Amino acid sequence: MFTRAIAGSLCAIGVASAQGAISFTFADPSSGLEVTHTAGAAPDGVSGLLTYNNQQPLDLIVYSDEAGFAGATYTDATLTMEVVVGPAFGLGGFAAAQLGDVHFEFRDMNGDLLLTGDSGGGGLSVIGGTSGGWTTNSTDDGGGLVMEAHGALLGELQSASLGQLIAAFDAAFTLTNITPVASVSGDYFTSFEANSAFTGTANVPTPGAIALLGVAGLITRRRTRG
């Protein structure tokens, strides 16, 4: 029991003290309106659904403050997004809505997964009916967002001796050039199209944390054998 407690403490200390931030972004592509909000299109038949044109190429940029990770840019990547937009309210030139289930995934030019995000909530806000954005994060209020690295992105992290993405997670999609002007009808947003850009952040365990996790596992195995 005591050995397991030591191992658990090592894990907790290692992960807490040896995390590094990693960020993701893409700029708004120059052509067309990529985001569509369709009123009443969610599975419940009442809420709206935000989607992204997954035929629109974009450049997904990954960067970090961690030494040894030079970052990566995935050209001609694509984004698939499905965000349930729930009840909304408007006050003057400001309107906001609760988000339901959120799913987004980035793929490279070959169609292989790079990054996925899943959440059970968040918020959409619109100012003046023409610009705004939606956000979700890893806190309970934010929807419990979880992001995972896949394929070439995961390989890049592992090559830099970094691990899989861990909390805290945050995802923010800006909305610009909203057309037609977004408004609240009844209790929900009306349909519209928009441009969008993305920023996201997560933590990764650094080499020190990964090594400490290995030590904790070795202690546990030796105790079990004894």
Number of H- or I-type helical stretches: 3
Shape: globular
Biggest sheet details: 12 strands, antiparallel
Distance linking N and C termini: 13 Å
Helix content: 10-25%
Radius of gyration, CA atoms, in whole angstroms = 20 Å
Overall pLDDT = 86
Q: Work out the count of structural domains.
A: 2
Q: Which stretches are low in confidence, meaning pLDDT under 50 for 5 or more residues running?
A: 1-17, 209-224
Structural class comes to alpha+beta
DSSP, total strands: 14
Oligomer: single chain
The helix/strand order is HEEEEEEEEEEHEEEEH
Strand content: over 45%
Please name the defining characteristics of this protein:
226 residues; alpha+beta; twelve-stranded antiparallel beta sheet; two-stranded antiparallel sheet; 14 strands
Model description:
The protein has helices at residues 2-17, 151-159, 207-225, and strands spanning 19-26, 35-38, 48-52, 58-64, 72-91, 94-107, 113-119, 122-127, 131-137, 146-149, 166-179, 184-185, 188-189, 192-205. It has 226 residues and is α+β, with helices and mostly antiparallel strands. It folds into 2 domains: 1-18 and 208-226, no CATH class; 19-205. The strands form 2 sheets. Strands 1, 2, 3, 4, 5, 6, 7, 8, 9, 10, 11 and 14 form a 12-stranded antiparallel sheet that branches. A two-stranded antiparallel sheet has the order 12-13. The chain is globular, with a radius of gyration of 20 Å. The two termini are 13 Å apart.
